[in-house]
Write a structure and sequence with these properties.
Radius of gyration: 26 Å
Oligomer: single chain
Order of helices and strands: HHHHEHEEHEEEEEHHEEEHH
Distance between the termini: 13 Å
Structural class: alpha+beta
Strand order of the largest sheet: 2-3-1-5-4-9-10-11
Largest sheet: 8 strands, mixed
Shape: flat
Number of strands: 11
C-alpha cells in the first residue's frame, strides 16, 4: 500500500507547478520548459490518484447506505450492485497508481538503433536473422514508427550476416528494450532432405539513441578508415572509397557503414551507432552497479542471454524469462503478433518492480 502522505505530496506538487506556470515571470524565464515537463509527467499520476480516491469515497458512501437502518430495500439493492463494481475497480485503480509511481527510465522515450546478427547455425542462422529483422520492420510499421535501414551485410541466399536500422517514433525504446539477447529458432531447413529439425540462433541488440550531449567523444579517441564498399561474396559495389570504419580506441568498439554512396553520410551514420553503443555501455554499467534493483527486472540486457525460442514445427514462440508460450508464430513473425509479447514483458517488469517497491516500503 502506498502511504497516503506520499500521494498528498504529489497532489501538492502538481498544484504548485500549475500555479507557478500561470505566473507571467515564469512563462518568460528559463525554468518554464523544465517545470512544464515535470507537470506533464505528474498529471497522469495525479489523475490516477484522484480517480482512486473518488472510488474509495464512493465505496464508503455505499457502505453507509448498506449499514443505515433507514435505507429502503430498493436503495440497498442498488448499493450492493454498486459495491460489487467498486470492489473490482478500487484494486485496478490502486495498481494504476502504483505503476504510475514506478521510477521512470528516461531512455524509454528515445528512438533506437536496432542491430540483428546471425549466430550459430550457418546459412540457416542468416536466414533467421533476416526474418527477425523483417519482423521488427513490420512491427514498427504496425506501431506507426519510422524504420530506416542503416546497414546490411547479406549472405547472398536471402539471409544476412548482420543488419542495423534506426527506429523512431513514440516510446520506441520503452517498447523494444526487452528484445535484446539471443533468439533461437528450431525448424527443418529447406536444404535438409532428411527432415531433421535444426537449431540456430541470432542476436538482437536494441540500443537507445544517444544525443551528442549524452556521450562526449574526443576526436583523438577515434581511428577512422575509409575503403571501397563491397557486396555479398566480396565483390566491389562502389568505385569510390565511400565506406567508413570507426574504431573507438578507449573501448575498442568498432562501427562500419557502407550503405550510402556518400562517405560523409556513412560517417554520420557510423557516429550515430557509435554514440548509441557507448551510451548503452554506460547504461549497462550503471545497471550492474544497481544489482539489487535489477534483480527483479525481466531482462538484464545481456546480449548473451537466451531469451526466446521460435519453434516452427509446433507453431509456438516461448519467451523463457516470463515463461510465456504463444501458439501464433506466423502472427508474431509478421510483426503484428509481437505486441502481445512486448506488452507481456512490460507488464511482468512492472509487477516485479512494484513487488520490489513494496518490499522497500515495508522494510
Amino acid at each position: 500500500m502506498i502511504p497516503e502522505e506520499k500521494l498528498d505530496m504529489l497532489l501538492k506538487r502538481h498544484a504548485e507547478l500549475s500555479d507557478s506556470l500561470a505566473k507571467p515571470e515564469i512563462a518568460s524565464s528559463g525554468q518554464f520548459g523544465k517545470l512544464s515537463r515535470e507537470l506533464s509527467e505528474l498529471t497522469p499520476v495525479v489523475e490516477s490518484i484522484l480517480s482512486l480516491r473518488q472510488a474509495r469515497q464512493e465505496l464508503d458512501d455505499v457502505e453507509s447506505i448498506l449499514t443505515d437502518g433507514d435505507s429502503d430495500e430498493e436503495m440497498k439493492s442498488l448499493a450492493r450492485e454498486e459495491k460489487s463494481q467498486l470492489l473490482k475497480l478500487v484494486p485496478q485503480l490502486e495498481q494504476e497508481v502504483q505503476v504510475a509511481l514506478l521510477p521512470k527510465d528516461e531512455a524509454d522515450a528515445r528512438n533506437v538503433i536496432l542491430e540483428v546478427r546471425a549466430g550459430t547455425g550457418g546459412d540457416e542462422a542468416g536466414l533467421f536473422a533476416m526474418e527477425l529483422y523483417r519482423m521488427y520492420q513490420r512491427f514498427a510499421e504496425a506501431m506507426g514508427w519510422k524504420f530506416e535501414v542503416m546497414d546490411m551485410s547479406e549472405t547472398g541466399i536471402g539471409g544476412i550476416k548482420e543488419a542495423s536500422a534506426s527506429i523512431s517514433g513514440k516510446n520506441v525504446f520503452g517498447k523494444l528494450k526487452f528484445e535484446s539477447g539471443v533468439h533461437r529458432v528450431q525448424r527443418v531447413p529447406e536444404t535438409e532432405s532428411g527432415g531433421r529439425i535444426h537449431t540456430s540462433a541470432a542476436t538482437v541488440a536494441v540500443l537507445p539513441e544517444a544525443e551528442e550531449v549524452d556521450v562526449q567523444i574526443e576526436e583523438k579517441d577515434l581511428r577512422i578508415d575509409v575503403f571501397r564498399a563491397s557486396g555479398p561474396g566480396g565483390q566491389s559495389v562502389n568505385t569510390t572509397d565511400s565506406a567508413v570504419r570507426i574504431v573507438h580506441i578507449p573501448t575498442g568498439i568498432t562501427v562500419q557503414q557502407q550503405d550510402e554512396k556518400s562517405q560523409h553520410k556513412n560517417k554520420a551514420k557510423a557516429m550515430k551507432i557509435l554514440r548509441a553503443r557507448l551510451y548503452d555501455a554506460e547504461r549497462e554499467k550503471a545497471m550492474k552497479e544497481r544489482a539489487d534493483t535489477r534483480r527483479g527486472q525481466v531482462g538484464s540486457g545481456d546480449r548473451s542471454e537466451r531469451i526466446r525460442t521460435y519453434n516452427f514445427p509446433q507453431g509456438r514462440v516461448t519467451d523463457h524469462r516470463i515463461n510465456l508460450t504463444l501458439y501464433k508464430i506466423d502472427e508474431i513473425m509478421n510483426g503484428e503478433g509481437l505486441r502481445e509479447v512486448t506488452d507481456a514483458l512490460i507488464t511482468a517488469d512492472e509487477a516485479a518492480r512494484m513487488s520490489a517497491m513494496a518490499e522497500e516500503v515495508g522494510a
